[in-house]
């Protein structure tokens, strides 16, 4: 057992053993005696004590909190002793006194601990050349410092804002200045550079969003990282690496003109300060970026106030000899050092005055972030609790509580209770973390102990294992799919004019019924063929699921009307197995038909009408069958000039699903007369919805652009775009005046770029209303079309073109028509494409939840690669090859002679 003493070194409390305290006390007494004759000796001694405190801090940790004699001895070896450099300055009297001390065996005698050959002497174990001295094999204090596991935290002891950069520097053992500069480059310099040189950031992924994401990452780390107030100072291992070993970047205000940035850089890199100032001025006139860099460095870099700061700035060793040498060279002048930097002094005073405002802004950000996190976490917890109640039967079955493609009680039915509970914890614990993080920010204290946090982490990991097992078990329920046909006749319908009506059933979009029309011989009875599809662990079980889980009603109303539900429902006790339903109406050719508004606009699509043209008011006309399509009788050209497809599709649903036609009126690439062979297509391919292409429907504002000489088109945003073939170049926009003012159209090389003029801090214009603008582009030929965001585009009129490349990202929609030699389509996100015409070679590469409806596109050969939950409907005549990975689906017709298409996992490939 040893006695400990508490000491205070420059405001830092250390616990030191008694024998170590005695050695340290004698050491400091020697230091004070040596520097007592120097001007400003009190500040010098305080600086030396601060350096000692740094060395002691580096040798303490959570498991070692007491400074021992060995630590003191290592410190003196690191700092050196006065006798190491002051012996040559002793006069004869000092030599005589030293000799007398030697004869009496004093502390500084030859045999004493501080003598030439003693433990702390020049040749001793802890001397300059000893094994534990500055030049010895074990000189680094890192080798003897107590080790502790690395943890990522916010270093509050050395912070500039919130301690994030300092904490990251501590974790990776690097100089904090480089972390701060890297963050500044990401937030401020990179976006500016990429805005200046936009060719570097072309395409769907632009670098201008780096600033926003880097700022967001800082805020997240600010919130989630724990604080540490006793973090050690950046040690020598951080500062003494590379060609600039031993140097630290400061602002040298002693020789400054404005803020000391140039002087500090010159001292750090050991170059002439004039050269640095010339380079900064050159950058100012070359674009002004060095002004921003100067201001940032002014804010970030600390001022070199003390002797030790100036020594680190020049790379001098922070030892007693270094202090002595620095003071001898620069501190002996009696003339006071003055600087003429009125601009810098004024700005710094103004910054100090604005500090309360900055503190207020920081508090406001903390409160807003806390409120958002609390509300988000609570909302997620409430949603998960409702789903848990529905899954285990605590909440009555409701068609209005949805989970993905089906009501929650249907989706969760058949999943074991332990799997549902595991899923609740797997998603609930992160939601609880968000909720508690928000409360932590608001209350400014942690609400969970370390033990509770670790317990939740263990429970979450266990729940992830449970969810994985439940998913593996449920995946077996989707291995096979099967279809069941049900035929119903309606002889009661006998009138020459048949009314086809749709009945609204309030169900999810995934339960929408796919309607097909098929002509029957004259005189035949009206028939309805239902095709029920489902999945299961075997084909027999899949058929049983289809028969016992789907409820759908078709009824005759009198002798002239046929009423069909627009959605199917799930029977009580049904289990979700990706059920789908297709209804084929077999209508006699010798009858005429009338359509209700719901049936025409909600259950039929443009492709159900001749020439894909649905009348603007379909309920006001009569129709007859031509082939398998409806032909309007006595319709004027103006009645079928444009589609009146509703704009429900503009509502974005976060839950993206391959079977979810999120708008009841979207266009469908369903099978028509050339696919009525009873193949029973049940896949629901909505394709891209059509949109109004008339300028008058968007607004009165018009703008014409003068761009010429392009053969590629890039569109970013949420605009409606029509691209047509023309003899000359023409770009025109119409619609809302404010949105058109925000529109930027320019040519970059061979590419016509259409995008919003103003982008947010996160690199994207989140302003709504871009769908209120229609842009029409005419060009002689097109080689490439790029769509990003929520663009809706219509491209057509380009016949007998050799090659066309299409790239889609986000939730873009494209309707494509024409004949091409090679058509290459790349999709990512939740894209939708409807294609018609003919191609020799089709190359499709899709990932995410994309969809290609190309039953009306005649392709000789096709290569298809799908990943995620994508769908593709093709018509191929010669050969098709490809892969479907994840939960993707490929369906193709045309009887190709060569077919090499593989499906992995729950994906499926179907030949029609």
UniProtKB/TrEMBL annotation:
<feature type="transmembrane region" description="Helical">
    <location>
        <begin position="367"/>
        <end position="395"/>
    </location>
</feature>
<feature type="transmembrane region" description="Helical">
    <location>
        <begin position="415"/>
        <end position="442"/>
    </location>
</feature>
<dbReference type="InterPro" id="IPR054319">
    <property type="entry name" value="PspC-rel_ToastRack"/>
</dbReference>
<dbReference type="Pfam" id="PF10988">
    <property type="entry name" value="DUF2807"/>
</dbReference>
<feature type="transmembrane region" description="Helical">
    <location>
        <begin position="454"/>
        <end position="472"/>
    </location>
</feature>
<feature type="domain" description="Phage shock protein PspC N-terminal">
    <location>
        <begin position="150"/>
        <end position="227"/>
    </location>
</feature>
<feature type="region of interest" description="Disordered">
    <location>
        <begin position="640"/>
        <end position="685"/>
    </location>
</feature>
<feature type="transmembrane region" description="Helical">
    <location>
        <begin position="207"/>
        <end position="225"/>
    </location>
</feature>
<dbReference type="Pfam" id="PF04024">
    <property type="entry name" value="PspC"/>
</dbReference>
<dbReference type="InterPro" id="IPR007168">
    <property type="entry name" value="Phageshock_PspC_N"/>
</dbReference>
<protein>
    <submittedName>
        <fullName>Phage shock protein PspC (Stress-responsive transcriptional regulator)</fullName>
    </submittedName>
</protein>
<keyword id="KW-1133">Transmembrane helix</keyword>
<keyword id="KW-1003">Cell membrane</keyword>
<dbReference type="InterPro" id="IPR054321">
    <property type="entry name" value="PspC-rel_TM"/>
</dbReference>
<feature type="domain" description="PspC-related transmembrane region">
    <location>
        <begin position="334"/>
        <end position="478"/>
    </location>
</feature>
<feature type="domain" description="Phage shock protein PspC N-terminal">
    <location>
        <begin position="247"/>
        <end position="304"/>
    </location>
</feature>
<dbReference type="GO" id="GO:0005886">
    <property type="term" value="C:plasma membrane"/>
</dbReference>
<feature type="transmembrane region" description="Helical">
    <location>
        <begin position="278"/>
        <end position="301"/>
    </location>
</feature>
<feature type="domain" description="PspC-related ToastRack">
    <location>
        <begin position="512"/>
        <end position="637"/>
    </location>
</feature>
<dbReference type="Pfam" id="PF22571">
    <property type="entry name" value="LiaI-LiaF-TM_PspC"/>
</dbReference>
<feature type="compositionally biased region" description="Acidic residues">
    <location>
        <begin position="659"/>
        <end position="674"/>
    </location>
</feature>
<feature type="domain" description="Putative auto-transporter adhesin head GIN">
    <location>
        <begin position="710"/>
        <end position="896"/>
    </location>
</feature>
<keyword id="KW-0812">Transmembrane</keyword>
<keyword id="KW-0472">Membrane</keyword>
<dbReference type="InterPro" id="IPR021255">
    <property type="entry name" value="DUF2807"/>
</dbReference>
<dbReference type="Pfam" id="PF22744">
    <property type="entry name" value="Toast-rack_PspC-Cterm"/>
</dbReference>
<dbReference type="InterPro" id="IPR052027">
    <property type="entry name" value="PspC"/>
</dbReference>
